[in-house]
UniProtKB/TrEMBL annotation:
CC per GO annotation: plasma membrane
Keyword Cell membrane: yes
Keywords, comma-separated and alphabetical: Cell membrane, Membrane, Transmembrane, Transmembrane helix
Organism of this sequence: Acinetobacter boissieri
Main location: membrane
Subcellular compartments: Cell inner membrane
Transmembrane segments: 6-25, 37-55, 61-82, 94-113, 143-160, 181-207, 219-236, 243-263, 269-286
Keyword Membrane on entry: yes
GO MF entry, a single one: transmembrane transporter activity
Name listed for the protein in its UniProt record: Nucleoside ABC transporter membrane protein
UniProt xrefs under Pfam families: BPD_transp_2
Length: 306
């Protein structure tokens, strides 16, 4: 395998990391029947919060990710209050949250445009990193990449193997039945939405402190929307979401290696390729109505008043 292809595959894993964080958070929220279209805004606020914290306090990447996650969670709390406590439209509130996140991140980020961070060095795992082909791809990544894989394993295990996972699904399928059985549906949905905000914030902070350790206005560049599309693409299954994130990560990273691979394709098309791929995948998935109906949470987007 050529060095160029190895670099593309290694870059694919890193590029998919923010999509995995944000997508897993949105998947958990949608499992309970809440669709939050504000992922893009939460990622942007998480990105600027993590970057500002790291810049001011020369903090570690891990603590900056936590700050970014906390900022994303605060944004999701706003969304949860209006949609769950005040019973307003989820789609409208999500769009408003994205617009708000874009505005406030641009405003706060004015003072950080020319600032750069040291970033994070890739690990070089002994023995494993020396494995031909797989070593440079899988075992020479930064530790946040491995945290995203750990997050996937935890979410998969909770949803598939635990009582909490069954409860989240029950709330998403029939909140009325869950309420009749004595469960606090709103509290469960609050927790899921806050978890989604935490994960989106971490994904945004990863972009600004690790993946591209500098602040650029609107640097999330549509990844929040792709994360939402990934949940549909995955039909609300964590494993398929993980694979979809790597697929979109590969499409994203391909534009940076196109010339080296000898692809004579206009740069504008390559820049638009991830979004074109998103539309194509959604069209294909939406045609299989039986598959969507089998996995779609029955109460998704619907207001519940106990």
């Amino acid at each position: 395998m050529s060095i160029e292809v190895t670099a593309i595959l290694a870059g694919t894993i890193a590029a998919a990391t923010p999509l995995i964080f944000a997508g897993l958070g949105e998947l958990v929220a949608e499992k309970t029947g809440v669709i939050n279209l504000g992922v893009e805004g939460m990622m942007l606020v998480g990105a600027i919060a993590g970057f500002a914290f790291a810049s001011h306090y020369e903090a570690s990447v891990f603590s900056s990710l936590l700050v970014g996650g906390a900022a994303g969670m605060a944004m999701s709390l706003i969304f949860a209050f209006f949609t769950l406590s005040m019973s307003t439209n989820q789609s409208a509130c999500g769009l408003a949250l994205t617009i708000f996140g874009m505005g406030i991140s641009a405003f706060i980020g004015q003072n950080y445009v020319s600032t750069a961070l040291p970033g994070l060095h890739n690990l070089n795992i002994p023995v494993l990193s020396d494995i031909p082909i797989l070593g440079p791809i899988l075992f020479q990544q930064n530790y946040v990449v491995y945290l995203s894989i750990l997050a996937f394993l935890v979410v998969w295990w909770v949803l598939a193997k635990t009582r909490l996972g069954l409860l989240l699904k029950a709330v998403g399928e029939s909140p009325e039945s869950a309420h009749a059985m004595g469960y606090n549906v709103l509290a469960i949905r609050y927790g899921a939405v806050l978890f989604g905000g935490l994960m989106a914030g971490i994904g945004g902070a990863f972009l600004s402190t690790v993946y591209t350790p500098m602040w650029i206005e609107n640097m999330v560049a549509g990844r929040g929307w792709i994360a939402i599309a990934l949940v549909v693409f995955a039909t609300w299954k964590p494993t398929r979401l993980m694979l979809g994130a790597y697929l979109f990560g590969g499409v994203t990273i391909l534009q940076f290696h196109a010339q080296a691979l000898g692809l004579n394709v206009p740069n504008e098309f390559l820049s638009a390729l991830p979004y074109v791929a998103t539309i194509v995948v959604l069209v294909i998935i939406s045609r299989d109505r039986k598959l969507l109906k089998m996995n779609l949470p029955a109460s998704l987007g619907k207001t519940f008043n106990p």
